[in-house]
Design a protein that fits this description.
The protein is mostly helical. It is built from six helices and three strands; from the N terminus they run ααβααββαα. It is globular.
């Protein structure tokens, strides 16, 4: 194994992959966020709405596992969505220690309108790749994810 020093650190062969991975994420995140302009939703708020959309409601733990929102941020996101009348909290029927978050009627209408629109927005870009390229991307990203676990 080659010793990594300050002099050779920037020349490691994984650096170009790392940079492209970050660039890809940044490009995707910017394009995704552009789809919410004028909708009075932040990306994390939309993530929660879209996660809850086809469910009877989820606990905070379930929402956290299904979204990219950290536990510390999630409460604030839910608070703001509740303030907008888009979600409601109810005690869990199964576990009194848990709270279930579900969409209100207003939240469900927003989900039904915005989720398909946002998927169409993102699909426009993924359609630039062939099916084979998308499958190859998934396989490679799964390998990269596994390397960091």
């Amino acid at each position: 194994m080659t010793r990594i020093t300050a002099g050779n650190a920037a020349r490691q062969d994984f650096i170009p992959l790392m940079r492209e991975l970050v660039r890809a994420y940044q490009a995707f995140a910017a394009y995704d966020a552009a789809g919410y302009r004028g909708k009075d939703l932040t990306v994390p708020q939309a993530d929660v709405i879209f996660t809850l959309g086809n469910t009877p409601g989820l606990t905070f733990k379930q929402i956290g596992k299904s979204t990219l929102i950290t536990k510390g941020t999630l409460t604030g996101v839910i608070d703001r969505l509740e303030g907008k009348g888009l979600v409601k909290r109810v005690p869990s029927a199964d576990d009194g220690r848990c709270t279930v978050v579900g969409l209100t009627a207003k939240g469900r209408r927003l989900f039904e309108q915005e989720f398909p629109r946002q998927i169409r927005h993102i699909k426009e870009r993924f359609d630039r790749l062939t099916g084979s390229e998308r499958e190859q991307g998934v396989r490679l990203l799964r390998k990269i994810t596994a390397a960091f676990r």
